[in-house]
Amino acid sequence: MRDASSDRSIADRTWVALAIIVVLGVTYALLARFALDGFPYSGDEYSLSLQGELFGRGVFKAEVPPHAEWLGVDHVIVDHWIRSKYPPGASALLGIGYRVGVPWLVTPLEAVVALVLVWWATRRALGPRPALVALIALGVAPLFLFQAASFYTHTATVMFLAVAFAAIGAWTTRPHARWLVLAGAAIGATFLIRPLDAVLFGMAMIAFRSPRAIVITAASALPFVGLNFVYQAIQFGSPFTTGYALYEPAFRALYGDDTAAASLSFHHLINPVQLWNHIAIFRAMILDWTVAGTAVVALVGARAIAPDHPARPMRTFAIAVICAFVLALLPTISDPDDGAPARYLSTTLLPLAFLAAAGFAPTCAVIASWVGRRVRTLFVILAVVFALAQVGTFLEDRLPKQWKREGLYQTAAAMHLRDDVVIVRAKYPSRYARSGPWFDGVLYLSLPADATVEQVQRAYPGRRIWEAHEGEPWTFTRVQ
Description:
With about 475 residues, the protein is mainly alpha-helical. The chain is built from 17 helices and seven strands. Helix 8 runs antiparallel to helix 9, helix 8 runs parallel beside helix 10 (about 210-235) and helix 9 (about 195-205) crosses helix 14 (about 310-330).
């Protein structure tokens, strides 16, 4: 019987894949600039973008003016200096964007690089048509699409791990050490962004049962780990002090012991609330944040790659990556926050896309045998359309919240405030006290309970003082 994949069609053409990548890249950029306004909505995003602005000016941190205790802002360390609590990798990339004036474009470009690498790696292992499937399964996945328009670190993480994934795939067919060196360097770069993701991805290489591969990869990643220690020494005073540890007392004071609980703890394995949150995240990942049916088709793909197929080692590695991240999520705190609930599983989009690419043809063949080719094609089209609709549904919920969060700064700009001081009156004022790394414009204050307006007036003589009250719209009242 003649294999359908041997027939040449438009789907086999390289230009088709490249055209899809361009369209997706433009889509990410348009969403970032016009839907999300190039605005770092969450505290995580703001912290990263603030550090990116510092890096863009060629500095690690900036001096804080007097009364640092009034300037607290979420996920930012404010003492004698202001800087982000997060590792430097993603902010360093954002720094390039700040340097050229388009920080909102950085993450869409990272996403494009990831798409190119996943397409290339899958094409090399499985062929052109599966590569096109992997490209669409990743590029249209609501989780990937949304984060590609945000300031979150997960897109940069996926980009570097896509480099590692492609290099490891090349090594499985041509076992040259240079591929392992490249994979190790990419994993090391990921360590400078999301250390746990880098460690879990590297641990999945145990599936190859090759001590040599693990040693070479680990050795190639070590310089980046050392660089992170140097960064921590410069930024936080000790190579062994993380930004998380330094920020933890402020976070606990702002949000309480429950919210500031340890991110990783075996207690989360038995905590009923956390167990339920984890189940909800897995459900959301399978049903909401990937193209409909991706998980099922990936299971078919894992079965479809035969033991003697050249891509069998990558199939085993892909399964190991998924298992590593799923198991690692269980002892991780998973309370609701400002981001996509499933974002900590972002890295699994790489192996899911690869396995779905392998399972797409056999799945379509079975569906066609049941309901015919036209209905099968309709199912495929609807899966892509529903994925895009899911992004629209998430934006429908997100955008009003974003407009509210942006509203404080838009109102201040509309009032032509320049050197004014604004006391933020909100349920969580530290979410809004964004004065920038230089404190050279409007000064936003998140006052502790024991601070008074009179103290603010004495601290900033000659400057106009306002109280901004949270709402839609925000209301500003001049302090007399």
